[in-house]
Structures are given as structure tokens and as C-alpha cells.
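S., here's the first fold you wanted:
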Amino acid sequence: SHCVNRVSNRGILRTGRGGGWVHRVHVVLDASSHFRLELASKRVDIQKKRFYLDVKQSVRGRFLKIAEVWIGRGRHDNIRKSKLTLSMSMAPALRYSLGDFIDYYHAALSPTGSAVSDDHAHRVLKSEFIERDNRKYFLDLKENQRGRFLRIRQTVSKGHGTMGYYGQGIEQTIVLPAQGLIEFRDALSQLIEDYGDEDSDEREAASFRVDNKRFYFDVGSNRYGIFLKISEVRQPYRNTITVPLKAWARFGENFIRYEEEMRRIFSCHKEKRTDARQDSEEEV
């Protein structure tokens, strides 16, 4: 895609190209002396839809605007557009949830199109919920006659703080065809790596592999407090538990206790194998 220069009566614009997508710096000053800095944009095409991921900066910090554009085929070529916004500090949590949905989608059987009954026209397959500040994000993987899709719905609590860089509006929704989840997640990951909030409370999940399993440890927070999410992944399956901070001391005590128990059992088994081997050698 080409860089498109945009002119503002009170702005300074500099555009450039890098990595196959648009890097741009666009400073806008409006009548209220608020400024908005447009840093980068990335486009993802999924079926008949286009998704634009724009990283912007305001006095309140960096944020991501995701716009969905659908162009219908008809006499008038109807164009529909929807969007949602989130802070860059919240973007890693969205990326982590997208990974869960991708794993689930590929583990489940592919939809059979017309085989989906009318009773399950909008069947919900998997749901997740993310909360940050006064904004809630509801993620629902659904299925209908046309296939599977992920609906991401953002709601904003009424009251002070509903305006600002998120824009006006109480609820915003985008719908992602399931076939493009990986490409969308990868585009989001690139923007997080290049423009992520260094002061974000969200950390990359630490992980390690044991045999054919991988374990992920991810610290997060919501209105109920701070927690550690532990995920066990053995393709195509994922199991997850969430441990609240207030229970972590007891978890640690039990881990130590059962580690000692497992080592004792391991030693007993090792001694039995040694005794059995010695007995067989004596018989020979």
C-alpha cells in the first residue's frame, strides 16, 4: 500500500515506508489545543473486509484504533465501518486472548456451512472477557451458516473519563472472520513490538517446554485484583488456571510440600528398580 499524505490546517505531516507497511507521524492540533500524533498504520484483508490498525498518541498516552471496513456488492456498493479503541498498555492482553481463540479454532472441527442448523444460527463456541480501567472487552467466538467469526465488543462505563482519545460512544464492535485471526494477531504483535507501552502492567508470558507440553505464566489484573494465569498447552489442547495474588503464598507452600513428596516417591521407585535389577543378576 502507498503512503497517503494528509494535510491539516494546524498540523505537520511526515510520512515514510518501512517493513511493508506505513510508518507516519501526523501531528494534529484542534481548536481545543488537544494534540494527536499518528505513529503507524497497518492493514489486514480478511475475506471481504479490511481492518486498519492505527497507533496514535495523545496527551493521555498511546492508543490503538482498530477500524473494520466492509464493502458490500450491490447496486450502490454499500460501505459499512465500525471501530474500537484500546490503550497500548492493554494491547498485549488482547494479543494473549487472540492466541487462546486461535488454538481453540484450530482444535475444533471445521464448520460444515449449511450443516449448521437454524437452532444454532449464532452458536457461541468460546468467550473471554478483559477489563481495563473503565472499559470492558467481550470476545465471543461464534458460528453461523457462513462460518466462524470472532466478535470483539467494547463497552465504556458512563461517567467521567468516557471521552478522550477513545472517542465518543458507549459501545463499539468489530467482527473478525476466524480464518484471519492469525494474520490479525501477527499485525497486532508487530505494532506492540514497535510501539508498545514500556510502562505497561501487562507482561509477556514467560514459558518453558517439558516433553511435548509448554507452560505459560502471565501476570494480569482486573477489578478483582492481581492474578497469575498458568496455561498448559499440548496441541491442540490448552488448560488454564488463574491464581489470585492473595492465594499465592498458600500455592507456594503446597508446591514445595508436593515437590518433596514427589522426590520421595521418585527415590522409592528408583530403589525398587535397583533392587529388582540386582535380584535378576543374582538369579543369572
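And the second, which I think is the more interesting of the pair:
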Amino acid sequence: RSGGYRLGKQLELVVPLVLSQCSPSEQISDPEMIESCLQAFDSFLLRCPREVVTFEADIAKTTLYYLKYDPNYADDDDEEMDDALVDDDEMDDDDDGGDYSDDDDVSWKVRRAAAKVLSAIIVSRPDRLPELVPQLAPELISRFKEREENVKMDVLSTFNELLVQVGHGRCSELHSPDAMAVEGNGSKSG
């Protein structure tokens, strides 16, 4: 994490390798590997924002996928589940689904790392806010229902960062010479 800036010149080689290790299409089942990849993206975005620009779209797409990553929890709001609902009364209550317990679930670390990567994208590229807001805001809002408190706090923090950056952008627009000219023209005619 601390050496991200040293990799700047090598990112053209490194980022595709990291992306391949956490590609949603590869059905990676090791949450620790995914978390490490997301942490690498976070470091690259914060320390080498110019060098990682060409990979931002792929990083954002992968990160948005993992923001919802919860393989051990069936969310009734998922569109895929709407057609496959099963009557709970017909299910055997004695079946606990195997030896799995919530204590073994580390997928929350993946979702938390994904939220941090989104925050890094927002902070490192305020010039892209017009593109980012429609893409990220609905996804972040949909994760307000997160069941893990640590992840929920990071999602809320990321959404807050998005709002702060939008506010800064709006303030910059209002204080730009073009905005003053428009305001000046409007006040002369009134």
C-alpha cells in the first residue's frame, strides 16, 4: 500500500494483472485475494492518479461489482431472486445450510475495500464528477441497507465524500469568471 507511487511507471503492466486476479467474470472465490486487489487499486488511485487514468473505467466497474459482493447472503431485493422465491413453509427448518457460520464470513472486507476504492476515485478525479455522480450515487445509496456496520460506515463516508466533492465543484463554478459574468449580466437586466 505504501509503495503505490513507486509503481507509477509500471502501472501499465501491473494494473491488468491485478484486474485479472479479481475479475468478476472469473468467479474468484478467495475474498482475501479480492480485498488485496482492491487495496492495490486504492493505493494506485491515491498515489498515481495520472498513471492509472487509462484503467479507471475497468477499476470502477470491478469495484462496483464488489461493493455488492456478499456470496453468503441472499438478498430478497435482488432481481435474480424475484423469479425464484421459495415458500419458507415448504423448507425444512432443520437444515442449517452446512457448517457455515457468520464468523467465517469475511466478504464484508471485500465490500469495505470496494467502498474505499470508490472514495479514492472520487477524491483523485474531481474533474470527472459529472460522469461519476450518476454512476456512483445510485450504487452507494443502494448499499445503505448494508448489514455489516463497518461496511455501512465506509459506504456512508464514501457517499459523503461524493457530496463534498460535488459541493466543492459547485462552489468552484459559482466563483469562476464565467459564472460571475453570467451573474453580472443577470443583475444588469433586473
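Why I say that: The radius of gyration is 21 Å. The helical segments are 11-21, 31-47, 56-67, 79-82, 107-124, 129-142, 149-174, 177-189.

Talk tomorrow,
H.
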